[in-house]
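Exam prep: given the inputs below (a chain plus adenosine-3'-5'-diphosphate), describe the expected output before reading on.
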Amino acid sequence: PLRDEGPSGAAANGSAQQLPQTIIIGVRKGGTRALLEMLSLHPDVAAAENEVHFFDWEEHYSQGLGWYLRQMPVSAPHQLTVEKTPAYFTSPKVPERVHSMDPGIRLLLILRDPSERVLSDYTQVLYNHRQKRKPYPPIEQLLLRSDGRLDADYKALNRSLYHVHLRHWLRFFPLRRIHVVDGDRLIRDPFPEIQKVERFLKLSPQINASNFYFNKTKGFYCLRDGGRDRCLHESKGRAHPQVDPKLLNKLHEYFHEPNKKFFELVGRTFDWH
Ligand code: A3P
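Solution:
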């Protein structure tokens, strides 16, 4: 809730809540939290802390844009507001809804090797079950049908079919409105990827290489912000299950054609298996 609110909903110092001018739409386990945190290093960015799930959850969407606005952080007029909800990318009804809010919005999509994303997705659900002390099958059981072929109905596989989901977005947005962040590169060397995002969002170049340092213990880059060091939560950067190389090969083969279709769609290739 805002303090010192004037009749327009803006505070006396000009700060107010704004609808997002950019949204990180996914993909789940692509590195969406890392991207949001890194982008937040920029002084002209105000980020919603939690996943908002406005466009994909009926109980939120039915409450209208006023509800959405109230989920946004307080920001200054010159700041860009951003939220991230990774489920948007794979939810077919979302693109039209985002378009009807703002057809000129800039979209950020962070993707990584689709096979790796499947393992990460599985690991996430496994941990969720462990937390609730509920059993969860080994990954082989979810990936494979009884005839030894991959089970296309396994949700984690479907979410990695990037071309299928992107097509829904391209019905409503031109490609130039969608910036694809290379999630594998963001892990290995985040700064150049973040610079590209700054340019796409027409932000002044204010994030520096010195904002990132490699943390050997975590095995990932962490952030340095005004002398304050912080890494992402321990749930980010977890070990994935060891998978039989033959099964891994099956996964790579499974995604070969879909990846080609995706590359054609975006006019760009990625260094995926
Ligand atoms: P893993 O935990 O499977 O390695 P999301 O935030 O969309 O759920 O994505 C989580 C993924 O972000 C992690 O998946 C991790 O690989 C990736 N990631 C990218 N940069 C990271 C960083 N600097 N620290 C931790 N995780 C990072």
